[in-house]
Write a structure and sequence with these properties.
The complex is a heterodimer of chains A (113) and B (114).
Chain A lengths: L2 E3 L4 E5 L4 E3 L2 E3 L6 E6 L5 E7 L5 E3 L5 E5 L4 E6 L8 E8 L6 E3 L3 E6 L1
Parallel strand pairs in A: 2-12
Antiparallel strand pairs in A: 1-4, 3-9, 5-6, 5-10, 7-8, 8-9, 10-11, 10-12
Chain B lengths: L3 E4 L2 E4 L5 E7 L5 E7 L5 E9 L2 E4 L6 E3 L9 E3 L8 E8 L9 E2 L3 E5 L1
Classes of the chains: A mainly beta (113), B mainly beta (114).
Chain lengths: 113, 114
């Protein structure tokens, strides 16, 4: 069965510093991985996805994610954090056998000015 | 283009009451789904649909019913509300529900069951 884990409940960074939000996955077969962001009192918004090809995926708002097959990881990164990046971030993996998406528990990112 | 809309935004129910959460999308997406979000548990899939007239159960379907009579609408019914159903509910849609399709989420309904 497919699963994802987000090992950090919370990540704190200073504005201007690089940020990383971690995600590891477990799948049988090729992984289809996604990152979503949730701002307060809002629905989730799609950031980026890994399907195949280049291990570095670029997405919205300057975010990127690095796919590492040997470490079964898909970490979300940004070179320079903004206070407005403060939100809840979810990693997700598609269930290859059906139509379901499995979400991680989420990581809350705080960016301090 | 409104995307995915949900009504109501907030709802308070008493135990045993029933209600319907509404969801609509105007993107002509075939796939629609309902999730509940609880603290520390991420999103859990309740029910989903891959097209009009086709629905299936997700991870936590008990206590909920769905139907899909049109492409646009995917209502979620709580048959007899319980305090354990206190949660934030999100509706989402995607083009065809294929492995590569990202989902578009509505703004959510915050439900409290007393």
């Amino acid at each position: 069965a497919q699963s994802v884990a987000q090992p950090e409940d919370q990540v704190n960074v200073a504005e201007g510093n690089p940020l990383t939000v971690k995600c590891t996955y477990s799948v049988s077969g090729n992984p289809y991985l996604f990152w979503y962001v949730q701002y307060p009192n809002r629905g989730l918004q799609f950031l980026l996805k890994y399907i195949t090809g280049d291990n570095l995926v670029k997405g919205s708002y300057g975010f990127e994610a690095e796919f590492n097959k040997s470490q079964t990881s898909f970490h979300l990164k940004k070179p320079s954090a903004l206070v407005s990046d403060s939100a809840l971030y979810f990693c997700a993996v598609r269930d290859i056998g059906g139509f379901k998406t499995i979400f991680g528990a989420g990581t809350r990112l705080f960016v301090k000015a | 283009n409104a995307g995915v809309t949900q009504t109501p935004k907030f709802q308070v129910l008493k135990t045993g009451q029933s209600m319907t959460l509404q969801c609509a999308q105007d993107m002509n997406h075939e796939y629609m789904s309902w999730y509940r979000q609880d603290p520390g548990m991420g999103l859990r899939l309740i029910h989903y649909s891959v097209g009009a007239g086709i629905t299936d159960q997700g991870e936590v379907p008990n206590g909920y019913n769905v139907s899909r009579s049109t492409t646009e609408d995917f209502p979620l019914r709580l048959l007899s509300a319980a305090p354990s159903q206190t949660s934030v509910y999100f509706c989402a849609s995607s083009y065809k529900g294929q492995l590569t399709d990202e989902q578009f989420f509505g703004p959510g309904t915050r439900l409290t069951v007393l």
